[in-house]
Amino acid sequence: MQEPRDPDSGTEQGAPVSATDGDGAVGYRGVTACHAVGISYRQLDYWARTGLVVPSVRDASGSGTQRLYSFRDLVVLKVVKRLLDAGVSLQNIRKAIEALRSRGVEDLAGITLISDGTTVYECRSPEEVVDLLQGGQGVFGIAIGGAFKEILGSLSHLPAEPAGTEPVPPVAADVVGDELAARRARRRAG
Question: How far from the centroid of its chain's Cα atoms is residue 143's Cα?
Fold first, then answer.
């Protein structure tokens, strides 16, 4: 990803994010992430398996485990979707996402991505956007702060779960599996 050079520009304040959304206190399962971002589960799974956007709360660790995505992950997923919809190659999207990975939630909100279809430029102020467009570069832009607002709106009616929730370990065959079986075992024993 290219950055326009302007040492005097400051970082714009980002869109507010609730504490539970931005600090990783909650996570969102794959199906919820798909609904919030507007992608298929197949896309989500492919992007996770190929390392494009890996869930930062909890990755799948075998059959039956659920990936858990943070709010920041959902914003990055939304950016990937928008870049793909605009015709940017997956190779260039990977470069752009690598540059965004190190950013915090608040940093992401102040960034606008501008692309000419091949190169993705990162702009942090309206002046940088204007400079880039006046130079003849850039065809479309993605304001990440706008993606924040869309995701927050989508998540308002979708389920989340505490990030500290560990997957339930599989029950061994000789251990009683449910409450009804446990009651039967107690009656037989006593």
Answer: 15
Angle, CA of 161, 59 and 159, to the nearest 5°: 20
The model's pTM: 0.67
Question: Which of 92, 101, 87, 104 is closest to 24 using CA atoms?
Answer: 104
> Within 10 A of 96 (CB to CB), how many other CB atoms are there?
23
Per DSSP, the three-state class of 165 is coil
Report which secondary-structure segment, H or E, holds 122: strand 120-123
Tokens 């199906």 — which residue? 31
How many other C-beta atoms can be found within 10 angstroms of the C-beta atom of residue 190?
A: 5
Report whether 44 contacts 77 (CB < 8 A): yes
Estimate the share of the chain in helix, then strand, then coil, as percent rounded to the nearest 5: 45, 10, 45
Residue 81 neighbours by CB distance under 10 Å: 18
Element at 76 (helix H, strand E): helix 71-85
DSSP state of 2: B
Q: Using only C-alpha atoms, what is the Rg of the chain?
A: 21
Residues 111-162 pLDDT 10s: 888 877 777 888 888 888 888 888 776 677 788 888 888 888 888 888 888 8
Q: How far apart are CA 58 and CA 26, in angstroms?
A: 11
